[in-house]
What does this fold into?
Amino acid sequence: MTVSFPWYDLASVRWANDAIWRATGLGGTLDRTTPVEEQWRADDLVVSQACGLDLFLTDAPIEPVLAPVFDLDCEDGCYYSVLVGSRDGVAAVNSLSSRSGFTALHTICEPSAMLVTGSHAASLAAVRAGRADMACIDAVTWHILERDQPEATRDVAVLERTCSAPAPPYVVRKGGEGRAVAHRIAAAMQDVTLKAAREALLLRGVIPVSMDDYAPVRAEYRAVASRTSIDMRKVP
It folds into this structure.
């Protein structure tokens, strides 16, 4: 059984993800070691999470079923990033397939070079250490780090926020029991005993989604690709 909520699983909030998963009653434990691309291809995939952009860049047999509703000042089921550091120079990006750290950055800046770090926390560390000049950090990650690991955000200036986009979805295997899994997760998200867990993750609940809801993410990526010299992957 492969289950994971990897996008917001910082060390300080792992207990909250574990509590929500236990409340689904689906059994098993969250996988924190298998790379997400392997999770998405697993025959026993129950649920994982993906960046909205990954839905178009991977050929793994996954589909979105739910989007998190965050406690952010944007539309339900959406999120945004914050630009930190400066507006010029080297950009630290968590991944070249990341909407929040890569595409969103290129909608508001034109960095001279990029440093791929592997995570938003590592991008912040690169900016603080002077190895990069700027980064776009997913707002949920930023607020969790600001609250739980203030040293990670200390002395890093927030310059502006990007436009919002559909939030990283929970994904299931195509043709599987996605509807039943989504129902269990949605019910767990409303469990009154999990208020503290939801607050820790800046979650207010989830809403149902489909591939069509992520069309704006694909369009944004295509627009960035059309005006940059960066070797970006093709999307259908």
